[in-house]
Amino acid sequence: MSLNYHSHTLNWLGQLPTDHSPLETPAPKPQKRHYPPSPSMSSEGAKKRQKTGSDIFRSQKIPLPLPRTPGSRTGDPFVDEDPTPRAPTDTTSTSGASTSGRSSPIKRLNELALDPNGVDFREFTTVNYPSGVFTALWDISQLARGNKVISPDKKADIKRAVGQKGGEWFRFVDDLCYCDEEDPRVQWGETPSARSVHKILQKARTSATDGESEYSWNVEVHQAVLDLALRDLRDHVEGDRVNFKFCPSARIMIEYRPGSTPESKMIDFCAVIEPEVESLAMIDGLRKVLPMNSINHTACNPLLKKPLCLAIETKPPGEKWNAARLQVGVWLAAQWTLLARLVHDAGGSFEGLDFLPGIIIQGHEWYFVASGREGTKTVLWTMKGFGATSDIVGIYKIVSVLQYLANWAETVYWPWFKKNALGEGSCQGDSLSNMRGIVESTQG
């Protein structure tokens, strides 16, 4: 029976086909695509189409950006290439936007240096400064050494702090840090309490240890220092008119951008003058004929009627120094352009004003910079470190320099501005008429 079974099996195998090619599968029929109807190109349809950015520019008579050469970056000319980070949201992409093709800060610095209406970037190691720059640099250098940065009435407070928990850092405060009762430092503003300084020290060290973002540094540390120096401790200063604003969204108006700068540069903080009633009335009169009704080179709403007197840009620890130089340089160049228009209208001069101050902050470290004018170009001198939030004495230095610059704004810049930019004492009607002519010729 076994032999019959095998014989039957062999006969069955011999009858199988030898062609092993796969079965053919019929190709699917192409599906007909259904497209939405094209929009009507009639005049009625064209009227209903959504306005483009170019339409809006034309309707407002704002000059369009110049066309770019092939291969150059395209994008919104009002967007800062290195904006201050904002508070993160759940919808923020973690992949990061592509930055290929954008001009690097080094390239932009070089381009502006070659532009006849651009910005020259120099170091403080050069010797040819305006007298105002030299005076400020000398005074800030003395404060940066820790000399006379604390008023004498705080000596007992600091000695008590040494014996308290965490107070060992106050041992670094020596006798050279205290000024006399007759020292000008006393008139700039009050020295912060030991408790306030120690609180900032703790915040700054926590931010550094935890690797906090630029936004967190601004909120937790930098704003706390500015608040302490320019608000809490200057209430008793006679004629105090300097305040500060957090302004990371303040863009430079296109009318004031230096040279061929296509993009808007923004900064993080600025100090402003709070005008008295009489000056505010003159400012409001000028605002009626100035671009975007602003007395400044930005249309940011909180800054429309308060003249700027100090630019402050912040960066994370050890990062983006050239980007910070570029941002501050372009910002101050735009401010010089605005001042030139105001001075021309008021029949004033730049005598008595040969620099505008700025500050760049990188994490703990604070640096003084200064801007001046040479013909049609702006010059930015960098950098002089004057304090750090990583130690107690460093915080006292920062507060002293901020109050020194606030005093300069009140006693030098603001009197100059009222006389030469607002035309205080001249006929305001003639002033407004001249300004209207300047603005119309610029926009026409």
Write the layout of secondary structure elements.
Blueprint: H1 2-14, H2 43-48, H3 53-59, H4 105-114, E1 119-123, H5 131-144, H6 155-162, H7 185-188, H8 194-209, H9 214-232, E2 242-246, E3 269-273, H10 277-287, E4 308-315, H11 321-346, E5 356-362, E6 365-374, E7 377-388, H12 392-420, H13 428-443
Parallel strand pairs: 1-7, 4-5
Antiparallel strand pairs: 2-3, 3-4, 5-6, 6-7
Kindly describe this structure.
- InterPro entries: PDDEXK_12.
- Residues 1-12 have a biased composition (Polar residues).
- Residues 1-107 are annotated as: Disordered.
- The structure is a single chain.
- With 444 residues, the chain is α/β, with parallel strands linked by helices.
- It has one domain (119-443).
- Helices cover 40% and strands 12% of the residues.
- It has helices spanning 2-14, 43-48, 53-59, 105-114, 131-144, 155-162, 185-188, 194-209, 214-232, 277-287, 321-346, 392-420, 428-443; strands at 119-123, 242-246, 269-273, 308-315, 356-362, 365-374, 377-388.
- Strands 1-7-6-5-4-3-2 form a 7-stranded mixed beta sheet, sandwiched between helices.
- A hairpin with a 2-residue loop joins strand 5 (356-362) and strand 6.
- Helix 4 runs parallel beside helix 11 (321-346) and helix 9 packs across helix 12 (392-420).
- The longest helix is centred in the C-terminal third of the chain and has 29 residues, at 392-420.
- The protein is globular.
- It starts with a helix and ends with a helix.
- Residues 19-26, 32-81, 86-101 and 427-444 have low confidence and may be disordered.
